[in-house]
Amino acid sequence: MTSPPVLRVESVSKTFDVRGVRLDVLDRVSLCASDGEWVTVIGPSGCGKTTLLRIIAGLLEPDAGSTIVRGARGSRLGATALLPQHETLLPWRTAIDNAVLASEIAGLPRSRALGEATRLFEQFGLSGFERSYPWQLSGGMRQRVALVRTFLSGRSILLLDEPLGALDPLTRASLQDWLLTVWSGLRKTVLLVTHDVEEAAYVSDRLLALTARPAAVQTEWTFNDLPRPRSRTELTFMRRRAEVLDVLLGGMG
Amino acid sequence: MTARRFVLPVLLFLAAVALWEIAVRAFAVPAYILPAPTRVVATFFRHFPLLLGHAGVTLAEILLGLLLGGAGGLGLAILLYSSTALRQALQPFLIASQMMPVFAIAPLLIVWLGYGLGPKVAVAALIGFFPVAVNTLDGLCATPQDRIDLFRTMGASPGQMLRKLLFPTALPSLFSGLKVAATLSVVGATIGEWVGARRGLGYLMLQSNARLRVDLVFAAILMLTTIGLSLFAGFRIIERRVLHWAIHHRPPE
Predict the structure, then answer these.
(1) Is some CB atom of chain A closer than 8 A to the CB atom of B152?
(2) Which of A146, B3, B224, B232 has fewest C-beta within 10 Å?
(3) What is the ipTM for the molecules in this complex?
(4) Last residue of some domain: A154, A172, A202?
């Protein structure tokens, strides 16, 4: 917590105009993440979590407030690695070529990227599928390829938008473990958006709960008392999880 | 099922040809009005070297026209895609250009470009470029916003966006346009030759018609049809090889 934040969002507000109707989505949301920290944002569906990530990624500009990525206030496009909610593999590229796309665009040497991708494929249980096309892979595998692509982007800040949302609970649990293993090996800063309480408590260093729209930060937890690797059945973990759920349910009125 | 898909058209074709043959013989139609199919085929093979020589010229016109029309159509589509102002400014003229019969400009093209390959290539290109431009533009516009956003967050340059995302996305539509252009450019080259030429299958048809050699006219038509079908089939084969991924790909909702 002593290192300066690599990502700082300062009272960001955003309002959309949907066919003449004002839609307040974000209301002075602030958060920060230090180098190598895993910060999770949780909140009810449709509360504006994705909008927050899109603002941080540079796809949207806030109406008020500021977003500072690695100390720079300028364009944020290309400064972070975003994993969008919907599957975005390119159908004309093989799994491994999809995985190295971000590093290819960043102009990193291809042979090194391919080597790292092969290693991560092994770690993510994708070995043997390097030359497969997305249509030949299951939903879980496609999502893992997209995760590898995000990790290989050469960016140190990863923005993950409900990356495991569409998967069944068992696949999701095992992917959370994979994610944590890869994350602890690469020491990247992660900002995860999710609506899954257990997932949030299982992976995060710090957790922010947002209110329903317009989203404002409701509560913030630091999970110092949950040493890694965590166990889903350990008592402190279960208590923390219940605490978060309590707050979220209370927030929904 | 597949066998029937081939057998039925072949049977229909043979029946039609047989009917033609019987009718010509039964009513003793003179060959300078309508030659029997057997006679057309006999002429086709007897004058094969002559036909082949003229076919070579016409094929060159068609291929050059396709190349120019295809490249022009692709270029225009990219230009129109990248600038809304340009799209709005050019759209009416683009459509108006298609209302203008190419037959009408063909004589002018002869005046401007001479009797050589030029005007024929120009007609073939003019007639083929529209379907390529319209189809490719549709394909470019169908690029999912998710993917465009993803490329933006990766910090992709406009050139990278075009090469790695937009062009592959539009490739299936480009091929649809090229297949239409291939059939149209056969017509275009023939019209170009009718208006003024010293060689080519269109020229041969006019000459033969004037000398009441209707069998040679039909033989030339047979040759043109073969060229058109081969071009279409060629594009189909290339398309299947290049776009193997598109056959299986179901675009996400």
Answers:
(1) yes
(2) B3
(3) 0.86
(4) A154
